[in-house]
């Protein structure tokens, strides 16, 4: 019995996208109680800790990236004109998601380094260089592509 499974095929990509959304949704649902406990442990709504802000940002920007990216992949109503407005949204949010995760790692590294000012300066400089290069490589010369007015991607 021969199996025709091509991992580079469009069908496989669709399955992988659906699986990734399903796993993310499952993770979101099972971690909601911990999220609510985290919010309740804040001293007040006006004095939210940095860790809480970063948690909220990474959690919901990541969900937004996944939703908008998959919407752009599975939507069938894109025209060249609507694609002009939409094709930069997913890459821009992806860079924003990456920036937030780098801030989280930077804050943790800075705290592990006992808040050394030299380490803080080096981390800030590295963060600036990395984020500028991320914005450039993800958005520079990106062109919208509409295939059969059914599928849309950006290259």
Give structural attributes.
155 residues, mainly alpha
The sequence of SSEs as H and E is HHHHHEE
Q: What can be said about the biggest beta sheet?
A: 2 strands, antiparallel
Number of helical segments?
5
**Approximately how much helix is present in the residues?**
over 70%
Average pLDDT confidence is 88
Low-confidence stretches: none
Q: Which structural category fits the helices and strands?
A: mainly alpha
The overall strand count is 2
Rg, nearest Å:
20 Å
End-to-end Cα distance, whole Å, is 38 Å
Strand content: 5-15%
Label the overall shape.
globular
Biggest sheet: strand arrangement = 1-2
How would you explain this protein's 3D organization?
There is one protein chain. The protein has 155 residues and is mostly helical. 71% of the residues lie in helices and 5% in strands. It contains 5 helices and 2 strands; from the N terminus they run αααααββ. The protein has helices at 10-40, 50-74, 80-86, 89-112, 117-139, and strands at 144-147, 151-154. β1 and β2 (151-154) form a beta hairpin. The chain starts with 9 loop residues before the first helix and ends with a strand. The mean pLDDT is 88.
Helix-strand layout with pairing:
Layout: H1 10-40, H2 50-74, H3 80-86, H4 89-112, H5 117-139, E1 144-147, E2 151-154
Antiparallel strand pairs: 1-2
Helix pairs in contact: 1-2, 2-4, 4-5
In short:
With 155 residues, the chain is mostly helical.
């Amino acid at each position: 019995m021969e199996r025709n499974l091509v991992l580079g095929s469009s069908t496989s990509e669709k399955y992988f996208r659906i699986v990734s959304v399903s796993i993310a949704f499952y993770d979101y649902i099972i971690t909601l109680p911990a999220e609510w406990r985290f919010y309740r442990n804040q001293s007040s709504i006006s004095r939210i800790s940095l860790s809480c802000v970063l948690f909220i940002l990474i959690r919901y920007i990541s969900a937004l990236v996944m939703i908008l990216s998959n919407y752009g992949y599975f939507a069938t109503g894109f025209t060249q004109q609507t694609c002009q407005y939409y094709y930069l949204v997913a890459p821009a949010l992806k860079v924003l998601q990456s920036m937030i995760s780098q801030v989280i790692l930077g804050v943790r590294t800075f705290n592990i380094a006992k808040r050394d000012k030299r380490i803080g300066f080096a981390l800030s400089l590295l963060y600036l260089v990395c984020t500028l290069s991320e914005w450039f490589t993800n958005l520079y010369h990106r062109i919208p592509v509409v295939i059969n007015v059914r599928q849309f991607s950006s290259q």
